[in-house]
Write a structure and sequence with these properties.
Length: about 625
């Protein structure tokens, strides 16, 4: 049990925590949430004893073993695998003692040390370290590379692997999914679900938190507030509390209306059964939890576009890579309504593809045709690193539109929570999260009609990620995004493409299907085994299988025909209802409709609006049932 007794914590003159108490039970899984700068990392350091409290005390069980992610990794010639094993200090101590005992030919000591190594599972440590590195995206040829060989993001992964390797009863992870791709994030999620100790996690990834935690500690003002349940449960509880405040309630209702409009637009064009169901469920959940973020300091949107050509980019037979192709024969049409999430293991070529589409890298082969009025907004980590450190936020935004008034620039920056004197401070003094917000503000202000986003949620807090998700929903142009944030993907894209073993192709399922597919990749893939073991008899068998497959496919089409017909009928009904509802809402938005002389007509319209919404709900429910049947037929 860990107890925080009436603790107060400060950073400079700023009060982070004021007279707060809470208790963490052994084995409990807790998410620590709060805005950037609220004091989450400082709380971790206080628990570790690295910084002193202003008042109060933190009580930990005697002998509690803790493990945290180091934030620094100096370059060294130590190999990656050995670096991770070094995290188990007890193992290294026993290993050194055993070497000395062997040198001294001390058989008694050798027997005792072998027994102690067995007790700590020392004989499996190399295998466990290899599994950690593999799960976090390191290929086997990187295991012996020195730490100095790796870039900053990969060193963060090494620190994470070391934290997981270190024996502990309390594991504290600060933004562990930063610099991870979706595949490594899913692996980490599964690893943590098996972790037997007490878990404290700071993260901006709501899907990750939902899967791992069972309690939330929220920084609210200068208090620590406990909520039971995962992150989604926290949002609902917070929304209920905020709804008691009339001003917040009114903001909530406006936000609900905005999401309903977005859902309606999506429903009208949904065509893929599995993705349609997944998307509607995600949007429904987002509508429920949106009110929990009404008090967020972030409120921005992409500007309306002057130019939005129907066709933006055509990619034909594209090969990308460096000395050798990483991906070949990429074909892709990007239109104004294209919204794509790119999936694939780290190193598969996702980021390289975005750089080639942007024009930062040249393709090895193939052709890219761009619309004359194409305006690309590109966001990646190196865009953050390339910000002019001597410039100010005001100067950065004003230079995008020199005709904008000072007040317009101030208002715009306020939506990204840069207010008062902060807009005139040098960018060099800002935190990583603040710089990431500025780089995003720069992209949003540039009025792109094609957005290329590479891990846009890194270094952002949960409120900012939520605000970005809303802004992307309202964005009018095309979107291609690489992200490990499944909530953001599920709420902003309507198609997935994967890069796997050099092949670029559409992924037909949703993110749950992709997670299932990932779990299968841990075993030897079927296609490689087939290539390795195929014989002449096997080839004949494969031909027979193909014939049987054609017969089964034909039978499936015949079974599905009535359902497909019903699906089309329901979609037409939804389109008609949607059209009538929009017309009604246009009438109802006219202030003249609320004059006394129009009372009768207004009453009839409101009654008809209620009828249409009921019909829409019933029809959509029937449509979802048909999609469910098709999915399992």
């Amino acid at each position: 049990m860990i107890s925080l007794n009436r603790i107060s914590l400060m950073r400079g003159n700023q009060i982070l925590i004021d007279n707060s108490s809470l208790t963490l039970s052994g084995g409990q899984r807790t998410g620590i949430i709060g805005r950037n700068g609220a004091g989450k990392t400082s709380l971790f350091k206080a628990i570790e004893g690295e910084i002193a409290l202003e008042q109060g005390a933190i009580e930990l069980p005697k002998g509690l073993r803790t493990s945290t992610m180091s934030q620094e990794t100096p370059g060294s010639q130590r190999g990656a695998l050995e670096f991770v094993i070094d995290a188990d200090i007890t193992y290294r101590s026993l290993e050194k003692a055993l070497q000395q005992a062997e040198s001294d030919d001390d058989h008694t000591a050798m027997a005792r040390l072998h027994s102690e190594l067995e007790n700590i599972e020392g004989y499996t440590i190399r295998n466990r370290a290899e599994q950690l590195l593999s799960g976090l995206g390191f290929s086997t040829d990187l295991f012996d590379q020195p730490v100095s060989y790796f870039s900053g993001g990969w060193r963060v992964r090494l620190n994470l692997a070391a934290a997981l390797m270190r024996p502990s009863e309390l594991l504290m992870l600060d933004e562990p999914t930063n610099h991870l791709d979706l595949e490594a994030t899913v692996w980490l999620e599964q690893w943590l679900q098996r972790y037997p100790g007490t878990l404290l996690i700071i993260s901006h990834d709501r899907s990750f938190l939902d899967a791992v935690i069972e309690q939330v500690i929220s920084f609210e003002g200068s208090k620590l507030v406990e909520y039971t349940g995962n992150y989604s449960a926290f949002e609902k509880l917070k929304a209920e509390r905020l709804a008691l405040q009339q001003v917040m309630y009114e903001k909530q209702q406006r936000r609900r209306a905005e999401i309903e409009n977005f859902v309606r637009r999506f429903r009208a064009k949904a065509s893929k059964a599995t993705q349609a169901q997944s998307r509607l469920k995600e949007l429904s959940r987002m509508e429920e939890i949106a009110p929990a973020h009404i008090d967020s300091p972030f409120a921005f949107r992409f500007l309306d576009l002057d130019q939005l050509p129907d066709f933006l980019m055509q990619v034909q037979q594209l090969s990308i890579g460096f000395a050798e192709p990483v991906v070949e024969r990429i074909n892709l049409s990007i239109r104004s309504d294209t919204r794509i999430g790119l999936l694939g293991f780290n190193g598969s070529g996702k980021s390289t593809l975005l750089k080639v589409l942007f024009g930062h890298h040249s393709p090895l082969a193939g052709e890219i045709t761009r619309a004359k009025k194409l305006r690309i907004g590109y966001y990646a980590q190196h865009q953050v690193d390339e910000l002019n450190q001597q410039s100010t936020p005001f100067e950065l935004i004003q230079q995008l539109n020199p005709k904008a008034t000072a007040q317009e620039v101030r208002n715009y920056l306020g939506g990204f929570d840069f207010k008062g004197d902060r807009i005139n401070e040098k960018i060099g003094v800002f935190s990583g999260g603040e710089k990431a917000r500025l780089a995003l503000a720069q992209v949003v202000r540039s009025k792109p009609n094609l957005l290329l986003l590479d891990e846009p949620t890194n270094h952002l807090d949960l409120d900012m990620v939520h605000a970005l998700t809303i802004a992307l929903q309202q964005y009018q142009g095309a979107l291609v995004v690489v992200s490990h944030d499944r909530h953001l993907l599920g709420n902003t894209v309507d198609a997935f493409y994967s890069i796997h073993r050099g092949v670029f192709a559409e992924f037909k399922g949703d993110l749950k299907d992709y997670e299932k597919w990932l779990s299968k990749q841990e075993s030897v893939s079927y296609d490689l085994a087939l290539q390795k073991n195929e014989t002449q008899a096997g080839s004949i068998s494969l031909k027979l299988d193909k014939k049987q497959l054609r017969q089964e496919t034909a039978a499936k089409r015949e079974r599905e025909a009535p359902l497909r017909k019903r699906e089309k009928q329901l979609e037409r009904t939804i389109d008609n209802l949607n059209s009538e509802l929009q017309s009604l809402e246009e009438y109802l938005s006219n202030s003249k409709m609320y004059d006394d002389r129009n009372k009768k007509q207004l009453k009839e319209m409101l009654q008809r609006q209620g009828e249409l919404k009921t019909q829409m709900a019933d029809t959509e429910e029937a449509w979802m049932e048909v999609l469910e049947e098709l999915q399992h037929s």
